[in-house]
Amino acid sequence: MKNFELNFKLCALILIAILLQGCFGYQFNLNTPNNIKTIAVSPILNKTDEPTVENHVMRAIQSFIQFDGRLKLVGINEADAIIAITLDKYNNNPISYRDDRRVAPHFYRQSIHATANLIDSSTGLIIGKTTNTGESVFEFESDLSSSKRNTQAVAADELARLIFNDLIEIW
Q1: For the chain, what is the HEC assignment?
Q2: CB contact at 8 A, 53 and 61
Q3: Are strands 81-97 and 126-139 parallel, antiparallel or unpaired?
């Protein structure tokens, strides 16, 4: 009986050692470029003709940063790095018509094009740069302005996700 207990304990010890061996030396990579721990998003420069579209992009990019959790979102004066976004183009292009081209288009593709820079706030140097386009499709309802406003958040969300992936997620 003592031999059985000794063999069982020895097998258990060997099994535990084998299982833990894969965990030794593993560590979470908490280092970021230039030891960035805090980040801010500067006011978005809107060079398009579409008013307030930058508000949707700002909410979306801040949401992605907070959800990720690796960087603390702070004000510009306290940040280690700053994301500067410029909205360059905003388009609503018809992609589908109801019966013929004599009537209003049925579906539109909305696109928001932007360039973004990740800037080290201590040196002013650009750490990363990206150019992206967020898109969404919407159905023409009663009028174009209300139809496109209802989907701006979707295009802004895709744009913010792409910017986030290119500037921060790659770490």
Answers
A1: CHHHHHHHHHHHHHHHHHHHHCCCCCCCCCCCHHHCCEEEECCCEECCCCCCHHHHHHHHHHHHHHHHCCCEECCHHHCCEEEEEEEEEEEEEEEEECCCCCCCEEEEEEEEEEEEEEEECCCCCEEEEEEEEEEEEEECCCCHHHHHHCCHHHHHHHHHHHHHHHHHHCC
A2: no
A3: unpaired
pLDDT in tens, 112-149: 999 999 999 999 999 999 999 999 988 877 666 777 77
Q: Would you state the torsion angle of the CA atoms of residues 6, 12, 14, 16, taken in this order, to the nearest 10 degrees?
A: -150
**For the ranges 25-34, 64-73, 160-169, which has the lowest average pLDDT?**
25-34
Residue type, 96: S
Reported residue count of the chain is: 171
Instruction: Answer whether residue 25 shows pLDDT above 60.
Output: no
Share of the chain above pLDDT 70, in %: 81
Q: Is there a contact between 133 and 143 (Cβ–Cβ < 8 Å)?
A: no
